[in-house]
Write a structure and sequence with these properties.
Chain lengths: ~60, ~400
């Protein structure tokens, strides 16, 4: 599974961090960081993260 | 003698309403294991799209439809979309819905997702020049009006949408922007006085005027609105009026079925309506008890609710239709909302409106970045941050504590 975040859309709401903390996090500067190729076992939480993104900036491929 | 063979055709789950809640319901039906047919019926001609940008980026001309449209999951590639079509009636005993193109659809399960429409003012005066913001077409129409040079704008209603539209209108260069509301402060209903007063100050510092503690009694003008008459007799000159005075549930099509439709569709703790296990309601039309709080059924118009309700309702409905065992806890979402206005954001977790009588500053101060805690019976029930990203991050740190509080039913 491949995860792509449109960083031009991202406004740091952090809802994805709550939904999928294994994949999304904030770095020390408060900017979103994420794992681009998470394990398929995390699909449910990544899908939830994509659902709850207010900007709909998260795309899941494969 | 042979018996004519009747090919068994499975009735679909009909999702009435094809906006965010309808889409999420369809996706969650698939995720829950419903592999039968699904039909979505939507009044708007558009595929489901994200509404929050309508009062901001779309008005500001910064968002195309493509950037608003949801990307449906691959699992719903086979569902039937009936867009530009309204449901006009339902017979819940016969399990059918009627559409405005004359069709009648039988259903195995029904998802009520018809949402809300803007409430409109009924006071006398011309209609032209008066806008509401709910749909993409509404927002495009309002943008065209707001971008005329020298526009004088009156926003009626100082809630989420009113405050966001006022901020966007200032950014677009409107000559005057005035927000009218019978309440003494903007957004005082969801925020309480402390933050509402801070919000008012921020708006005023950025060029928004307020006429508070008064309502609108009439609109002036012949064919097109030229002014707004207030309760105290004052007249605000206006070329553009935005009515953001709440919304009305789209439930007329359900009349005559014995449902409680007093304000949206009353549901049980699992989002089922009218004691019918094959009928669920999702999104802002659902009036559900939240087991996390006091168990009083309420409609919630926050962006997170369509997704939360769809997940719970789809699991309950799918279990019913497939005969699988499913014994979920009562629905108990943690509400969350945000609102972007000017260069600041409001970010909330929990249910601040339940704790407005006991608001404490947890961090910062109301003139800068501030985090307020809302308490009921001494217990923190919600937090709201007002300011920049630091304030929002401070609010998020309380989310876990708000989530861990034991859900309780009244």
């Amino acid at each position: 599974m491949k995860v792509v975040v449109d960083m031009n859309k991202c406004q740091d709401h952090g809802q994805c961090v709550f939904a999928a903390p294994d994949v999304f996090s904030f770095d020390d500067a408060g900017r979103l960081a994420y794992v681009g190729d998470p394990d398929d076992a995390l699909r449910d939480e990544v899908e939830e993260a994509a659902d709850v993104c207010p900007l709909q900036a998260i795309r899941i491929e494969g | 003698m042979s018996t004519p063979t009747v090919r068994a055709v499975r009735a679909p789950v009909v999702v009435a309403g094809a906006s965010m809640a309808g889409l999420r319901a369809a996706e969650q039906l698939r995720a829950a294991g419903w592999d039968g047919p699904v039909t979505l019926v939507g009044a708007e001609p558009h595929m489901p799209y994200n509404r929050p940008p309508l009062s901001k980026e779309v008005l500001a001309g910064k968002a195309s439809f493509e950037s608003l449209a949801f990307r449906p999951r691959a699992s719903v590639a086979d569902v039937t979309w009936r867009l530009g079509t309204r449901v006009t009636a339902a017979d819940l005993d016969r399990r059918t819905v009627r559409l405005d193109d004359g069709d009648t659809l039988p259903y195995a399960g029904l998802v009520i997702a018809t949402g809300m429409r803007p409430r409109r003012l009924t006071c006398p005066g011309p209609l032209a020049g008066r806008h509401a913001v709910r749909t993409l077409d509404d927002a495009r129409g309002l943008r065209a009006a707001l971008t005329r040079p020298g526009a004088r704008v009156v926003v009626v209603g100082a809630g989420f949408i009113g405050c966001e539209v006022a901020a966007t209108a200032v950014a677009l260069g409107a000559a005057e922007v005035t927000v009218v509301d019978p309440l003494p402060l903007p957004m005082v209903g969801p925020l309480g006085e402390l933050l509402a007063a801070a919000l008012r100050k921020r708006h005023e510092n950025r060029g928004v005027r307020f006429a508070l503690g008064t309502g609108v009694t009439a609109f002036e003008g012949e064919d097109h609105v030229t002014g707004v008459v207030l309760g105290d007799g004052a007249v605000l000159p206006a070329d553009v009026v935005v009515e953001s005075v709440g919304s009305v549930a789209n439930t007329e099509w359900l009349d005559g079925n014995g449902l409680d439709l007093a304000d949206g569709v009353r549901t049980d703790a699992h989002l089922r309506a009218g004691g019918r296990p094959e009928v669920v309601a999702v999104g802002d039309v659902a009036r559900f008890p939240n087991a996390r709080y006091d168990g009083v059924p309420r409609r919630v118009e926050h962006w997170s609710i369509p997704t939360d309700t769809a997940r719970h309702a789809a699991r309950v409905l799918t279990a019913r239709l497939t005969g699988e065992q499913h014994d979920p806890d009562p629905f108990a979402p943690l509400p969350t909302f945000w609102s972007d206005q000017h260069d600041f954001r409001l970010q909330s977790f929990g249910a601040p409106a339940l704790g407005k009588a006991d608001v404490r500053v947890l961090d910062g101060d109301p003139d800068g970045d501030v985090l307020a805690g809302y308490h009921r019976g001494g217990r923190l029930v919600g937090v709201v941050a007002l300011g920049g990203p630091t304030a929002a991050a401070a609010a998020a740190r309380h989310r876990t504590a708000l989530l861990k509080q034991p859900a309780r039913t009244a």
